[in-house]
Each structure stands twice: as structure tokens, then as C-alpha cells.
Amino acid sequence: MNPWFLAIRPRTLPAAAGPLLIGNMLALPLTKFSWTVAVASMICALLLQIAVNLANDYFDFKNGIDTEERVGPTRVTQSGMLAPYKVRNAMTLCLLLSLTVGGYLIWHGGWPIAILAAASVLAALGYSGGPYPLASHGLGELAAFVFFGLVAVVGSYYLQAGNTTTAAWLLGCAVGLLNAAIMLVNNTRDIMTDTKAGKKTLAVRIGEAQARVLYQALLYLPFGLIIAGFLLGQLPGFPVLLAGLSLIMARKLSSDFYQGSGAALNPLLGKTAKLTMMFSALFSVGLIF
After folding, report:
1. What are the sequence ranges of the domains in the chain?
2. Letter string b/e over residues 155-178, b meaning 16 or more CB atoms within 10 A of that residue's CB
3. Pair 218, 177: CB distance under 8 Å
4. Each residue of 164-193: pLDDT tens digit?
5. What per-residue confidence (pLDDT) applies to 71?
6. Nearest 5 degrees, angle CA 137-CA 138-CA 144?
7. Where is the chain membrane-spanning (predicted)?
């Protein structure tokens, strides 16, 4: 398999695409809706996700976290498939490209988008690198919730509408929780190796048993949020009903997570990302119709 394909980790890309899809489809009925803005925001989000993946690959190798004992999918830097400087340069290129596309979005959305763009780039670099790596201090799930939930959904809606709504915040929280679950799977799988490396992820801090409980909460709370949004008159019923169909997949993933550990959790990483995309796609289809 092409090492660059492994490096960008395509199975995780729904984490970036899902929230942008919901945010833009929520704004679709607006007269000022722009497909150019929608596509640009999606491209920018995907580039940032790829940059995060490359940064994680590079910095975890440089910090001695990825070793031969790793049980997760192949890391191209640690395995020697790609030279560290190549992964670092690819990460830099993705960040520069995201800033190029982001420049148009900043021009369109003004200073609030500029602040979000700066915070997103800093988070991409600071997730695994810098003086206080977020992933090594139990903040990975929180970062996923904020940037691939609230910032992505509310930010993409703001780009189209020029304001925010309660619906956007509710959906941002819902998708953010699902994306935090992706991070939790990754960190629970790596508890053994992260503990040895001194990487204090949330899973390391709370232990595997509590991580299983938290994973359930992260999967089920989004459905509670959208139902509450419907009951409060903030979300339309048909999208809520359609998105609710993905609860079937959530229940299966919850069961599988309880039964597996270590390398057995690898398939759940991509499947949890697919749940995010399924939830987002079904809700978006409901919004369209």
C-alpha cells in the first residue's frame, strides 16, 4: 500500500467531512447560501485533518511514543516507510494549503473566522507537538469535540449565515461527541504503549474500564441532544428521525468496544468515524427534504 495513503489515514477523514456537511446543509435554505463557500470550507477542514494526522505520525515518532510495540495501524515514520522530514514537510504543506483556502473564507467571514482559523492551525500543531501536546495531557478528546464539532459546525454555518443559531450549537455538540469517541477508541487501544511512553491520554488517566463507560456516553448522548432539540422546537423532526437510524450502528459499536481491547480495537476506529459520517449524512438528507 502507498505509504502516503497510510499517512493521511483516510478512515479518519469523515471526522472532518461530517460536521462541515451538517453545518452547510443547515444553512442551505438561506438566500445567501454559497456553494463556493461550502466547498472551500470542506476542503479546508479535510486539509487540517490530514495535517493533524501527519503531525501525529511525525511528533509521536520524534517524542519516542511510537515504538515497535505499537499495536495500532502502521505509522509511516516509525516504521521507516517515509523519512521524518518528508512527513514534516507534507504536514507543513497541508497547513499552508489550508491557510490558502482559509484566506478566502476569512475574507468572506471576517475576523471571527480569522480567529477560528488561527486557533485551528495552533490546535493542529499542538495536538501532538509543541511544549504542551494536547494528546499527551488528556485533552485529545476535548480538542476533537471543540474543533471537529463546535468550530466545524457552528463555524461553517456562520460562514453562510453571518450569525449562529441554537440548532447549529446543538448539532456541533452532537457531532463533536461522536468525534471525541473516535479519539477515545484510539487512546484506549494504546493504553499500554502510551503508559510506557509517559503519554497521559484521557484513557490512561481514567483506565480502560471507565473508558468503556465514557465511550458509551459519547455514542448515545448525541441522540439525546437532537431529540431534546426537537422537543424544544429547535430542530425539525424528519432530520432527527433519519439520524436516529444510525443509533443501530452506535449500539453495535458500543457492544464491540466492550468486548475488545488492544489491537482488536483497530477496526472500531474506522467504524466510529463512519458512524459520525452516517449520523451527519442522514441528518443532512433530512434537512434537504
Report:
1. 12-288
2. bbbbbbbeeeeebbbbbbbbbbbb
3. yes
4. 999 999 999 999 999 999 999 989 988 888
5. 61
6. 115
7. 33-55, 90-107, 142-160, 166-186, 218-248
Dump pLDDT digits (tens) for 185-236: 989 988 888 888 788 999 999 999 999 999 999 999 999 999 999 999 999 9
Angle at 97 between CA 73 and CA 28, to 5 degrees: 90
CA atoms of 41 and 170, how far apart (whole Å): 20
Reading the block at residue 269, the C-alpha cell is: 476506529
Q: Which three cell numbers stand for residue 140?
A: 485529545
Residue carrying C-alpha cell 441532544: 225
Cβ-count burial 128-148 (b if 16+ within 10 Å, e if not): bbeeebbbbebbbbebbbbbb
Evaluate whether 124 touches 95 at the Cβ level (below 8 Å): yes
Residue 280 carries which side chain, given as an amino acid letter?
Answer: S
Of 208, 190, 207, the C-alpha closest to 199 is 190
- Lookup result for grid cell 469535540: 145
Distances (CA, A) of 73 to 88, 186, 190, 193, 269: 19, 10, 11, 13, 10
Query: How high does pLDDT run on average in the chain?
Result: 90
All three cell numbers of 43: 476542503
CA geometry: angle 33, 116, 219, nearest 5 deg = 85
d(CA 249, CA 271): 9
> How far apart are the C-alpha atoms of 210 and 241, rounded to whole Å?
30
For 237, half-sphere exposure in the C-beta direction (CA atoms, 13 angstrom radius) is 1
Q: What per-residue confidence (pLDDT) applies to 70?
A: 60
51/58 Cα distance (integer angstroms): 10
pLDDT at 260 over 90: no
Q: Supply 123's cell numbers.
A: 490546535
Report CA dihedral (63, 64, 67, 69) to the nearest 10 degrees.
-110
